[in-house]
Every structure is written in structure tokens, then in C-alpha cells.
Amino acid sequence: MQDTQAFVERQQEIFFASMPSVVIVGAGVIGTSIAYHLAARGVRDVVVLDRGNEPGAGSTPRATGGFRAQFATAADIALSLLSREKLIRFSDEIGVDSGYRPYGYLFIARSEQAMAQLRIANELQHACGLPEARVIDADEVRRINPAIVDDAIVGGTFCPTDGFIRAMKILGGYFAAAQRLGVRFEFGVTVRGMRIEGDRIAALETSRGDVQGDVFINAAGAWAGTLGVDIPVAPLRRQVAATIETDVLSDTMPMTVWADDGFHFRVRDRRVLLLWPGSPPSSFDTTFDAESWLPQVIAFTNARVPRLRDVPIDPDACWAGLYEMSPDHHAILGRAPTIENLYLANGCSGHGVMHAPAIGQVLSELVLDGRTSIDIHSLRPSRFAEGAGIEASALL
Ligand SMILES: Cc1cc2nc3c(=O)[nH]c(=O)nc-3n(C[C@H](O)[C@H](O)[C@H](O)COP(=O)(O)OP(=O)(O)OC[C@H]3O[C@@H](n4cnc5c(N)ncnc54)[C@H](O)[C@@H]3O)c2cc1C
User: Fold this and answer.
1) Distance between terminal CA atoms of the chain?
2) Domain segments of the chain: what residues?
3) Burial of 32 (0-12, 13-18, 19+ CB in 10 A)
4) CATH code reported for the domain at 102-164+235-325
5) For domain 2-62+168-233+328-383, is the CATH number 3.10.28.10?
6) Interval 255-300: pLDDT, tens
7) How far apart are CA 153 and CA 141, in angstroms?
8) Which of 105, 332, 353, when mutated, tests ligand 1's pocket best, judged by the most ligand atoms within 8 Å of its CB?
9) Whether residue 238 has its Cβ less than 6 Å from ligand 1
10) Is 73 within 8 Å of 89 (Cβ atoms)?
């Protein structure tokens, strides 16, 4: 037993022999993007720790792959526009097709209140450099997506450059590119806590011993609040009902979202994916709820997309995953308020894949330059303590 213990300690010493300059927790799409962007700027000794056995052990593979710049805040629009630019040149820069396909996002309003919020957001989108997003009437909604049957529609918005991306292509691309630049990925390592000395992290306490570093980055997705420092991120179960493969609707159909209640659908690889938020309790449970949630989604679908009535759900293709919710449902990006060498890339609240390319760039800028090329001040971690959380909108 003694010998075994000594062997394990020796392995741990070898494992973390050289002190990394940057330690990132989480090899999801956000952590791998940050690792790549730091390494591309010349940072050596970047280490990414993840408790999974391979990249994508968290929420990233569960994303449905929507991309949009139609948001209601300047910071989110700026993140999307920067991401879009990077997704378009992803193949050249990273060597992989990001899957970006501009098939559009169609937001539908059934109430004047939702329509007013879409209009306000649309004005902001124009002011922020998204002129192609437009307000449309009910007839145009039906023309853009003829599969919809809903008498209550009052209008909507449409942006043709929104569309779809492939979450695991983006993650895999950043992972491989980061490795080529010398980033070390250590899988099977669980971060259990942080040893804080004064206003700095001295070391991460992990299942394979303490890990020291100069700078630490929390990219642990829905689990960001479990690493030993109080980060206001809570898990929220989101579920996807998938039909059998069908040609009733085309893969090129825009993402179609009812702003009033969040019901939305798209087609991916010939399956129609149906989503509705519902109100699940906050927990890490990712069991798919076929009992009460699924019948409600089928009811929405039958009422609003009647041509899907005869297309069965494939129970084996349905899944659930976790959103990483911040208190105001917007990302938390920047240096932690009380810990000088800890940066947060958390709380994307369901937009993490689409914003990952931009977040990787701006986090690397924050760490290396202390400022960012786009304005993300409203997403600073200290905003909750300052009472400056972001207001809710129909376009969360
Ligand atoms: C059903 C569903 C649909 C979605 N659709 C979209 C969409 O259309 N578009 C979009 O942009 N986003 C979408 N999202 C959200 C998106 O999946 C997330 O925002 C994104 O994946 C977050 O990436 P991440 O890297 O922060 O987290 P994750 O991918 O969860 O990665 C976090 C990593 O941290 C690791 N980790 C956690 N705790 C520890 C620990 N203690 N020690 C070591 N490692 C740890 C985990 O193993 C994991 O690999 C969707 C999510 C769901 C569930």
C-alpha cells in the first residue's frame, strides 16, 4: 500500500512537473476555443483539465447547432458578429468546416408585447451592424416558413445570415488546432476546489494532485459554480424531441422560434428537432422526460406544424442536456471580482457554441492585453454585485 501511494504521488509530481502559465478548467467548446486563441497568440504552457475522457464531455455535443446574431443587447450582437466572421473563415484558420449555413432564423410573435420587443431588438441590431435582420408581417412569416399554421401570428423578424453550425466540428477543430500549437489536454482530472491565498489562486485541488499556474480560467459550463469559488451559474435542463428521418421538411428550413413561449424547431440530418423550454427544476439531471414534457411538445407541434402530425418521434434519438444559466441569462466574461488570477468564461445561458469563437478571442485579449476588441463591459462578472444585471427580453 505504501509503495502504491508513493508511486501515485510520484506520478502526480511528474504529471504537473512544470508550472503551466494558464490552466483552463473544461474542454468544452469554450475551453478549447480559449486554449487555441491563447496558444495562437504565442502563450506557451497552456493546460486544459477535464474530468471527462475526451473533449466534449459536457453540454457541447448536446447543442442543436443554432447560430444567430438576432439578440437584444449590443454585447451579444457584437459577440455573434465576431463569431460569424470567424466561423466563415474557420476552414482556412482551423482546417475544419464549422458547418455555418446561413439558412436564417425566423422569430414569430403571437402577441403585441412580443412583437414590440422584437422591434426594439431589431432597431438595436441595425445600429450594431446587422442591417439584414428585418421586421416582417404575418404573411411574410408564412411565406418564409410555409409549414407553419398559426392564426395568432401578428408578425416577426427574420435574419437570413443567421442559421446553423456544427458544435462538435467547432470543438474538434479548436481541440486539434490547440494541440498542434502545443496546448496540453489532461483528461480524467476532476477539479475539486481552489486553494486561495490572499486575492490569488495558489493551486487547483484536483483528483490528481494540486495544479499550480499563473492564470486560471473557469470554462466548466453548467458546472462552473462547483469548482470551489462562488460563481452564479445554475444548470437548466433543456430537451430535444427528434422525429424519425423524414423529407417532409428540408434541412434548409430556417430555425423557427415562437418568441412568446419559446417553442422552436429546425431540421438536422433529416430529423425535425422540436424544442420548448418548459419549466424544469434547476438540477444536473439530464434524464429525458417522455412522461410530461414530450406530450406538450407534440401538442405544440400538431397545432402549429400540422404536416408533422404523421411523422413519429424517434424515442432513441431524443435527448436532454444542460444550459449554463447566469442570473440574467447572459454570459459572465472577465476577471473574477475578488480573485486576481481567475478569469470567467461562464453562464452563456444556451448560446455557448455560437459565441465560442468570439469568447475564445476576447478572453485571450483580456488575459494578454487587459482589454478587448469588442465591448463586453456589460458582461463583466461584477455586474451582479453592482446591481447592474441585464434586462430580460423576448430575444434571450
Ligand atoms: C439541448 C441543448 C441545445 C442547445 N442548443 C444550442 C444552440 O443551438 N446554439 C448554441 O450556441 N448553444 C446551444 N446550447 C448551449 C451550448 O451547448 C452551451 O452553451 C455550450 O456547450 C457551453 O460550452 P462550455 O464549453 O461552456 O461547456 P461544456 O461543453 O459543458 O464543457 C464544460 C466542460 O467542463 C468539464 N468539467 C465540469 N466540471 C469539471 C470539474 N470539476 N473538473 C474538471 N472538468 C470539469 C466538463 O467535463 C465539460 O467537458 C444548447 C444546449 C443544450 C443542452
Assistant:
1) 55
2) 2-62+168-233+328-383, 102-164+235-325
3) buried
4) 3.30.9.10
5) no
6) 999 999 999 999 999 999 999 998 888 899 999 999 999 999 999 9
7) 8
8) 353
9) yes
10) no
Amino acid at position 349, single letter: S
Report, as an integer, the average pLDDT of 222-229.
95
Cell of 42: 504565442
Task: Name the grid cell of 271.
Answer: 430529423
Q: What is the pTM of this model?
A: 0.95
Contacts with 276 (C-beta within 8 Å, 6 or more apart), sequence order: 261, 262, 263, 264, 293, 296, 297, 300
List the one residue out of 14, 120, 104 whose CA is nearest residue 68.
104
Instruction: Please give the C-alpha separations between residue 350 and each of 117, 217, 223, 308, 396, in angstroms, as whole numbers.
Output: 20, 19, 14, 26, 9
Q: What is the pLDDT of residues 307-316, one digit of tens each?
A: 999 999 999 9
Residues in the chain: 396
Residue 15 CA neighbour count, 13 Å, CB half: 20
Band (129; pLDDT cuts 50, 70, 90): very high
- If phi > 0 it is left, if psi is from -120 to 50 it is alpha, else beta; for residue 19 that is beta
State if residue 286 touches ligand 1 by the CB under 6 angstroms criterion: no
Cell numbers linked to 376: 463586453
- 241 CA → ligand 1 middle, Å: 19
Regarding the beta carbon of 48 and ligand 1, being less than 6 Å apart is answered no
Which of 59, 83, 217, 363 gets mutated to test ligand 1 (max ligand atoms within 8 A of its CB)? 59
Distance CA 344, CA 334 (A): 5
Same fold, 2-62+168-233+328-383 and 102-164+235-325: no
In the chain the beta strands, taken as DSSP E runs, fall at 22-25, 46-50, 66-67, 105-109, 134-137, 155-159, 163-164, 184-187, 191-197, 200-206, 209-211, 215-218, 234-242, 255-258, 264-268, 271-275, 319-325, 332-335, 342-346
Closest residue by Cα to atom 31, ligand 1, is 28
Helices assigned H by DSSP within 22-70: 29-40
Q: How far apart are CA 351 and CA 261, in angstroms?
A: 18
